[in-house]
Amino acid sequence: MSVVLVLPLLIIFAFTSHSADAVWCACRPDKSDVDLQKAIDFACGNGADCAAINQGGACYQPNTVRAHCSYAVNSYYQKQKGATGSCEFSGTAAVTSSDPSPGGSCSFTSGGFRKLVQKKSPHLSLIVLVLVSFLLCFKLKGLSYFLLVWFFVDISFVCIFHIDESRNH
Questions:
Q1: What separation in angstroms does the CA of 148 have from each of 97, 130, 133, 160?
Q2: Beta strands in 32-167 (DSSP E)
Q3: Which of 18, 63, 86, 105 is deepest in the core (most CB within 10 A)?
Q4: In whole angstroms, how large is the CA radius of gyration of the chain?
Q5: 89-109, pLDDT tens digit by residue?
Q6: Which of 108, 97, 96 is nearest to 67 (CA)?
Q7: Which among 11, 42, 48, 38 has a CA at the least distance from the CA of 126?
Q8: Phi, psi dihedral angles at 103 (to 5 degrees)
């Protein structure tokens, strides 16, 4: 019986835990300084916190367009909570799992905004849950256990997709 009660909690934790999914937005190294400056101007003019790349700021050095670009677009991306398209900047930037911070006193904010549908296929997850449910049903030898597991699976998916959808708004 304890397996039936613990399984849904493990499922919810597995799909909603994002601590290992730190992501940043960084400018692409193959883009021109003109394109990078356009990205900086857009990001800083639309809500990014660009104080750190101003003279005397923690991320001012190195004082190059290339160095300042990743800070600005990442700040914008994090303020947008990783919304789809918030790290494109006309192809000048891309989402990365590698920390683009230059080090020292300059540290870029990271977020865990990868969505469930980007990270894992919901169809594959559903198949796995069906298999686990059937295995529990055979182990516990009862339809009531199977129905109880499916009740929790259904609630888990509703919670997962509700959390995922709330991050999009």
A1: 38, 13, 10, 18
A2: 93-96
A3: 86
A4: 22
A5: 999 999 998 999 988 889 998
A6: 108
A7: 11
A8: 100, -170
